[in-house]
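Listing S7. Sequence submitted for prediction.
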Amino acid sequence: MIALSDFEILLIALGILYVASCVHMARYARRTGRNAWLWFFLTLLLTAVPVTLYFYVVYFLQRRRELSGPTGRLRRCPHCRRLISPGTPLGACPHCRMPLGDEVQDA
């Protein structure tokens, strides 16, 4: 069995809701005498771009938050006072090459 995260379950549920709304628009178009297939595909295509962008941004922000973790903040070297990115190993400052201990300060 595949284990899905809460976020993936939300994406699947919203995808199903999205297709259901396209079907609803097609049924409405058919009731009003318009071409149902045309309106189904128009709704599907014209709303796919903003929906895709929205989900991409939400996923990107969540992934970024997961990767940054609790130590995802910029640090300041006590010797040269420059900012050190979170992914930099804390053995030595990449700018002044001075050894760093536990004395690195939050920016």
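Caption to Listing S7: primary sequence and predicted structure tokens for the chain studied. The beta strands are 75-76, 83-84, 105-106. The chain has a mean pLDDT of 80.
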